[in-house]
Amino acid sequence: MPVIEVTKDVDAYSITIVAEFSATVERLWELYADPRQLEKVFGPPTYPATFVEHELTEGSTTKYFMTSPEGEKYPGLWRITGVDRPNGFTFEDFFATENFEPAEGLPASECSYLFESTGEGVRATYVSVFASAGALQEVLDMGMEEGATSSIDQIDAFLTA
Predict the structure, then answer these.
(1) Which range of residues forms the domain containing residue 110?
(2) Domain named Activator of Hsp90 ATPase homologue 1/2-like C-terminal: which ranges (predicted)?
């Protein structure tokens, strides 16, 4: 399994997921930079994502939605705050309205995705930091850990296909 570690730090309001993939840093970057590829692995397998707008450049906005098995759409929004191609990127992550505006009353997070060569592949470190322990707990109660883990666990098979 690609996910090798999940750490929840209530004091730092964060969750960190570490995964290892049988690919190069450049190949993993390509996956995250290309919305059509990202759609194949982003979100839990039963909630596929559709990226409406996506460009990994600082200052850009990513708009997407995940679709439930019942057909319900759950929009999301990223504001890209930093890009270090091919080593990773940072962004603000929001639950969104159907018009892709940040949804009021739902937790947002500051995220960093870091990609490092291991010599045998790539180690990816995914960090999400929330505004409070309560916000972290709210997304954990929504199933964020399980959803993110099942999403990340799809990546290795896609990259090596």
Answers:
(1) 3-160
(2) 23-159
User: Per residue in 20-69, pLDDT tens?
Assistant: 999 999 999 999 999 999 999 999 999 999 999 999 999 999 999 999 99
Domain CATH for 59: 3.30.530.20
Asked if 142 and 35 touch (Cβ cutoff 8 Å), the reply is no
pTM of the model: 0.95
Q: Tally the domains of the chain.
A: 1
Q: 71-84 pLDDT, tens per residue? A: 999 999 999 999 99
